[in-house]
Design a protein that fits this description.
- The structure holds 2 protein chains of 2 kinds.
- By secondary structure, chain A is mostly beta strands.
- Chain A is built from no helices and 11 strands.
- Chain A has strands at residues 4-7, 10-14, 19-25, 31-37, 44-49, 55-58, 61-65, 71-76, 85-93, 96-99, 103-108.
- In chain A, strands 2, 4, 5, 9, 10 and 11 form a 6-stranded mixed sheet that branches. A 5-stranded antiparallel sheet of chain A has the order 1-3-8-7-6, with no helix packed on it.
- By secondary structure, chain B is mainly beta.
- Helices cover 0% and strands 53% of the residues of chain B.
- Chain B contains no helices and 11 strands.
- Chain B has strands spanning 5-7, 10-13, 19-24, 31-38, 42-50, 53-56, 65-71, 74-79, 88-95, 106-107, 111-115.
- In chain B, the strands form 2 sheets. In chain B, strands 2, 4, 5, 6, 9, 10 and 11 form a 7-stranded mixed sheet that branches. In chain B, strands 1-3-8-7 form a 4-stranded antiparallel sheet, with no helix packed on it.
- In chain B, strand 4 and strand 5 form a beta hairpin.
- Chain B is globular, with a radius of gyration of 13 Å.
- The chains are: A mainly beta, B mainly beta.
- Chains A and B meet through strand 4, strand 5, strand 9 and strand 10 of A and strand 5 and strand 10 of B.
Chain lengths: 109, 116
C-alpha cells in the first residue's frame, strides 16, 4: 500500500535558523497536504499542492511539490518560537489520504 | 462556526471495559475520519466514511474495534473489550467532499484514552 515517509524525524534549531522537512511517497500522488500539530493539540491544515512542480508560499513557509508528484518539502525561513510543533505531510491518492511520519520541530531560544 | 466536536476529552478505564468515543463533524461535511495517534505508530487512519457509508476500514486494528455513522452529524468508535495497547489519542476529522476531491481535513481536539 501507499507509504509516506518524512525526514528528519526530529529537528532542533536555534531561533532564527531555517528549517526544512522532506516528504517522500512510495506512489505517485494526486495531491499533497501539509498539517501542523502543536504540542498537545490537533493537526491543523496548512496548505494543499496539486500540480507537478508547484510552489506555494505562506509568509515564512515555502511548500514545494516534486515534478514526479512523489515528494514534497516544507521550508521555514528564520524560525520563531511559534513554529514549534510537528509537521505532517499527507499524500492523496485514489480514495486514500496517507499521513507521513511527521517531523517534530523544537526551537532553542 | 463550531468545529469538529469530540467527547469525552479524556477517558481512563480498566482493561476489558467497553469504550465509546463520539464525534460530531462540521455541519455540511460529508466525509468523516477516525485516526489513532501514538508515539510509536504516529497518526494512523482507522476508518473513513463518505455520506455515512464506510469507504475504507482497512486500518481498523481488529474485531474489538467498530465504528458507526448513523447520520450525517454523529459517529461513534467503540472498543470492546479494551486493552492497554489501545491507549492513544483518538482523533475525529471531517471534510467537505471525498478524499478523491482533495479537501482539507478538520480535526477535533481528540480523546486521550488510557486503558489500565
Amino acid at each position: 500500500g501507499q507509504q509516506v515517509m518524512q525526514i528528519p524525524q526530529y529537528q532542533h534549531v536555534q531561533e532564527g535558523e531555517d528549517f526544512t522537512t522532506y516528504c517522500n511517497s512510495s506512489t505517485t500522488l494526486s495531491n499533497i497536504q501539509w498539517y501542523k500539530q502543536r504540542p498537545g493539540g490537533h493537526p491543523v491544515f496548512l496548505i494543499q499542492l496539486v500540480k507537478s512542480g508547484e510552489v506555494k508560499k505562506q509568509k515564512r513557509l515555502t511548500f514545494q511539490f516534486g515534478e514526479a508528484k512523489k515528494n514534497s518539502s516544507l521550508h521555514i525561513t528564520a524560525t520563531q518560537t511559534t513554529d514549534v510543533g510537528t509537521y505532517f505531510c499527507a499524500g492523496g491518492g485514489n480514495e486514500k489520504l496517507t499521513f507521513g511520519t511527521g517531523t517534530r520541530l523544537t526551537i532553542i531560544p | 462556526d463550531a468545529g469538529v466536536i469530540q467527547s469525552p476529552r479524556h477517558e481512563v478505564t480498566e482493561m476489558g471495559q467497553e469504550v465509546t468515543l463520539r464525534c460530531k463533524p462540521i455541519s455540511g461535511h460529508n466525509s468523516l475520519f477516525w485516526y489513532r495517534q501514538t508515539m510509536m505508530r504516529g497518526l494512523e487512519l482507522l476508518i473513513y466514511f463518505n455520506n455515512n457509508v464506510p469507504i475504507d476500514d482497512s486500518g481498523m486494528p481488529e474485531d474489538r474495534f467498530s465504528a458507526k455513522m448513523p447520520n450525517a452529524s454523529f459517529s461513534t468508535l467503540k472498543i470492546q473489550p479494551s486493552e492497554p495497547r489501545d491507549s492513544a489519542v483518538y482523533f475525529c476529522a471531517s471534510s467537505l467532499g471525498s478524499v478523491r476531491v482533495g479537501q482539507p481535513q478538520h480535526f477535533g481536539d481528540g480523546t486521550r484514552l488510557s486503558i489500565l
